[in-house]
Specification:
By secondary structure, this protein is of the alpha/beta class. The chain has helices at 19-25, 60-63, 84-89, 102-118, 120-128, 136-142, 161-170, 188-192, 200-206, 226-230, 249-257, 298-316, 336-340, and strands at 10-14, 30-34, 49-52, 71-74, 93-96, 153-157, 176-180, 195-197, 209-212, 236-240, 261-266, 287-289. The model is unreliable at 1-8 (pLDDT under 50).
Length: 344
């Protein structure tokens, strides 16, 4: 690893950094911490490594301002907020952190799925208002819609790390599972023992509940829209712990107003941060909206910083190339000269 005097290194960290990460990196570079709102103020600093969360949008125009930027670490799995192709053409390597928080997001998705079937939160609110349920008739009226999960058809959109983790969690509950993922090779369904749909609309038409577990791309933005929602069963349930842009929220609101869905749980939204008072979803009692926290646990927060620091240290090696970046997303679109050497 290079010492602090060998390279003119600056590492710009958006939002709070883990103290252990700071201590590790401070020995090899100059650290600059800024919040997301102030990121636009720092182009003249010529940072070399930039760490950003999902709240910061980095497009081609913005990238062109950073003349000495060489590496972007996207602190998370999804990278739709960073134009990785434009970065590659400018010789900027982009890495994400795909191997953290898998358990947390899968656990969160599973808890949402079970809550939508058992209506646990709604029943707790009823109890909190000190309304006793004194007989089966009253219970049946108040808890209407509570459904046995065994045999319910759960459709997974995306069967990557998190989708597989949800699959493994859902099987013991007796869900009848299927998935849609056009990026996976033939035969994956056999290794997981679940059905595969090659058509998204087919999965929607069959499923009693749909759970999203895929990245957001230009190709799948608003894949759940007014047309695709119409293919779903009346009274279906919906969970999204992936990316808000996968769902057209305007179409979702219209469908909810028409009574299309039994219930919906959203950890992610088209506009973030989610502000309840500004959302058309707030009026629906059968919709649960959370502020993009499915990824979080104390362990996953420490893990994401540890993995990020390891990737940065690989980048800081003298004469490092983008192939030294184990988590690089855009090495295939890097110009040959930049790909040969990160610091060229």
């Amino acid at each position: 690893m290079s010492g602090p005097g060998e390279l003119p290194l600056s590492i710009v960290i958006c939002d709070d950094a883990d103290p252990v990460a700071v201590a590790t990196l401070s020995g090899v570079s100059r650290l600059v911490a800024v919040d997301a709102e102030r990121l636009s103020e720092i182009p003249g600093m010529d940072p070399v490594v930039l760490l950003v969360w999902h709240t910061v949008s980095i497009d081609a125009e913005y990238l062109s301002r950073f003349k000495c930027l060489r590496v972007i670490i996207r602190m998370g799995v999804g990278y739709d907020n960073v134009d990785i192709e434009a970065a590659g053409k400018l010789g900027i390597a982009v890495s994400n952190i795909p191997n953290y928080g898998t358990e947390e997001v899968a656990d969160a998705a599973m808890s949402h799925i079970l809550n939508l079937y058992r209506r646990t939160l709604e029943m707790e609110k009823w109890t909190h208002k000190n309304h006793p349920l004194i007989n089966a008739v009253q219970t049946s009226a108040v808890a209407q819609g509570v459904t046995r999960v065994r045999g319910q058809k759960l459709g997974l959109v995306g069967l990557g790390r998190i989708g597989v983790a949800v699959c493994n969690r859902a099987k013991p509950f007796g869900f009848d599972m299927s998935f849609y993922d056009p990026c996976l090779p033939a035969g994956v369904e056999k290794s997981h023992g679940i059905r595969r749909h090659y058509d998204f609309d087919e999965l929607l038409a069959e499923s009693d509940i749909v759970s999203f577990h895929c990245n957001l791309t230009a190709a799948n933005k608003h894949m759940l829209n007014s047309q695709s929602i119409a293919k779903m069963k009346n009274g279906a349930r919906l969970v999204n712990t992936a990316r808000g842009g996968l769902i057209d929220e305007t179409a979702l609101v219209a469908a909810l107003e028409q009574g299309k869905f039994a219930s919906v749980a959203l950890d992610v939204h088209e506009e973030e941060p989610y502000v309840r008072d500004q959302s058309a979803l707030a009026k629906f009692t059968n919709v649960y909206c959370l502020p993009h926290l499915a990824w979080f646990s104390e362990q996953s927060l420490a893990e994401i910083w540890q993995i990020a620091v390891e990737e940065i240290c690989r980048a800081l090696k003298k004469n490092a190339t983008c192939t030294d970046l184990r988590l690089c997303l855009n090495r295939d679109v890097m110009c040959p000269e930049a790909a040969r050497r990160v610091w060229s």
